[in-house]
Amino acid sequence: MKDYYSVEKEAVSEYTVERSRFITHIAPAENEEEAKAYVAKIRKAHSLATHNCYAYIADEAGLKQKFSDDGEPQGTAGLPMLEVLKARELKKCVAVVTRYFGGVKLGAGGLVRAYAKAVADGVLAAKIVKYTVCVFPKVTADYESYAKILQFAENKKYKITDTQFSEYATVRFAIPTKELEKFREDFAGYFNGRLEAETSGTGYYAFGE
After folding, report:
1. What count of other Cβ atoms lies within 10 Å of the Cβ of residue 131?
2. What range defines the domain where residue 97 resides?
3. Residue 25: its pLDDT value, please?
4. pLDDT tens for residues 14-72?
5. What is residue 186's three-state secondary structure?
6. Distance (Å, rounded) from C-alpha 77 to C-alpha 84?
7. pLDDT recorded at residue 1
């Protein structure tokens, strides 16, 4: 598993060249099924458009890639769109560019530039986030200790992602895998071994700014 970048949520942008409208929808996609479903959704919403071209990279490794020119001359739409996603190092991401033809042909070079710009504008409109490979230590404690756990997290700048309350409080952290040993040392030192953090499995977390 490796860290990767993606868009946080759906974003939309639009621009016009030679009276043709290019509308870009860009969104996160956890897998190919989500990417295909998103393309179908946009195509349905813009069923009267001249073209609905798309490109996606639907896994964190960048191996599940697909694009479509949707009737534009081969190589003038989907591939340039994909190249922008790759250049921005985006993964688990899908982009759909809808074109409403304005009556003026752009030529192959003009189409490549138009579709590449459309996706670049979409990326600019979106919020890009980094998804970090993490482990998620979990601590269950009484409420007096819970207050100290909050102090520990604040003092040591560790991220709490979830807390569940019952007879006890269960606190879940997100810790980048490369920082796990330091977290364990900090936690053990802070609580003098009185509390234990259980870790299991890995996943991704976006820490934000």
Report:
1. 21
2. 4-126
3. 98
4. 999 999 999 999 999 999 999 999 999 999 999 999 999 999 999 999 999 999 999 99
5. helix
6. 11
7. 85
Does residue 198 share a domain with residue 167?
yes
Region of residue 192 (phi > 0: left; psi between -120 and 50: alpha; otherwise: beta): left
Q: What is the pLDDT of residue 203?
A: 94
On whether the CB atoms of residues 22 and 46 are closer than 8 A, the answer is no
Same-domain pairing of 101 and 161: no
Give the CATH number for residue 142.
3.30.70.240
Cβ count near 60 (within 10 Å): 19
Binning pLDDT at 50, 70 and 90, where does residue 8 land?
A: very high
User: Could you tell me if 34 and 112 lie in one domain?
Assistant: yes
The two structure tokens encoding residue 10: 């759906």
Tell whether the model's pLDDT for residue 209 goes beyond 90: no
Q: Please check the confidence at residue 155 and state whether its pLDDT lies above 90.
A: yes
Question: How far from 41 is each of 33, 47, 54, 65, 96, CA to CA, in Å?
Answer: 12, 10, 12, 19, 10
Cα 125 vs. chain centroid, distance in angstroms?
Answer: 14
Give the residues across from 159 on adjacent strands.
174
Q: What pTM, to 2 d.p., does this model score?
A: 0.86
Looking at the structure, tell me whether residues 187 and 170 fall in a common domain: yes
CATH number at residue 114: 3.30.230.30
Strands 65-68 and 11-17: unpaired
Predicted local confidence at residue 200, as pLDDT: 78
CA distance 98 to 48: 10
What does the alpha-carbon distance between residue 76 and residue 66 come to, in Å, rounded to a whole number?
14
